[in-house]
Design goal:
Blueprint (H helix, E strand, L loop, with lengths): L5 E6 L3 H11 L5 E7 L2 H8 L6 E5 L7 H10 L6 E5 L4 H8 L5 E4 L4 H12 L7 H20 L7 H15 L7 H12 L4 H15 L5 H8 L12 H22 L1
């Protein structure tokens, strides 16, 4: 496969989403949307004949769903990189889908630049030893995204991406807790090609916005006494560390069995 010509086939019943993807990638130098289907039956009719490199597959569709497509592809020994779209984070479903070996999961609604990265990664994907490790990592990313949405962090602002990245870094490297400014911010800034000061300001702004629109019950669950009657906002460090700690507790058992 040529990395400068990645052909993507999209299976999703949401035509508006497909049109949005076509518009986003129409002038892309490496990624092309070359085909589409709107339900599982139509998908299988076309996928057997289509020349594609990556399949973007929705789970919930009319007639036949994404699981049907995954099963049929497996039966027909069609082995192409798959990115699965899902609207919810149900561990049972994630584990069920994972046996088919998708390269990534994306939680709807997703950022198009995040999807772009996953498409690029899918064609260069090197499998881990054992499928459970990939399942664990993908499920973690989905859980972080869902948790930030519940906490009221708008996904369209820069601070959302920075917080999400910061939480994942902190989760995987707890030692960074003592070096937020010296290590965490520079790592985020380097990934997103920006400055440390902009990262710090964007995260602070995202927390301020979330504190006025998040689910108060979820915020109480995550931050405990940090959420008082005046809803005093945590610092950037407190926010990232507390969210990563909560995730670490929730995923500790899964990590041990991965």
């Amino acid at each position: 496969m040529k990395e400068d010509n990645i052909k993507v086939f999209v299976v999703d019943d949401n035509e508006n989403l497909i049109n949005m993807l076509k518009e986003y990638f129409k002038d892309h130098q490496k990624i092309n949307i070359i085909g589409e289907a709107h339900d599982g039956l139509e998908a299988m009719e076309r996928l057997e004949k289509a020349d594609y490199d990556v399949l973007l597959l929705d789970l919930i569709m009319p007639k036949k769903d994404g699981l049907y497509v995954l099963d049929e592809l497996k039966k027909k020994s069609i082995d192409k990189p798959i990115i699965v779209e899902t609207s919810f984070n149900a561990e049972e479903t994630i584990l069920r889908v994972s046996k088919y070996g998708p390269k990534h999961f994306v939680l709807k609604p997703f950022e198009l630049n995040d999807l772009e990265e996953k498409i690029m990664d899918a064609v260069n994907f090197v499998p881990d030893v054992g499928n459970k490790i990939n399942t664990y990592h993908n499920n973690l990313e989905i859980t972080v995204t869902k948790l930030l949405h519940g906490l009221g962090v708008p996904s369209h602002i820069k601070g959302y991406q920075y917080i999400r990245e910061g939480v994942l870094i902190m989760y995987n490297n707890p030692d960074v807790v003592g070096a937020i400014t010296k290590e965490l911010y520079p790592e985020i800034a380097n990934k997103f090609d920006t400055t440390v000061s902009r990262v710090e300001r964007a995260i602070r702004h995202a927390i301020e916005v979330s504190w006025n629109r998040g689910d108060i019950d979820l915020m109480e669950e995550v931050f405990g006494h940090s959420v008082d009657y005046d809803r005093a906002k945590p610092t950037n460090s407190e926010f990232i560390v507390t969210v990563s700690d909560k995730l670490r507790l929730e995923f500790s058992n899964m990590k041990q069995t991965a």
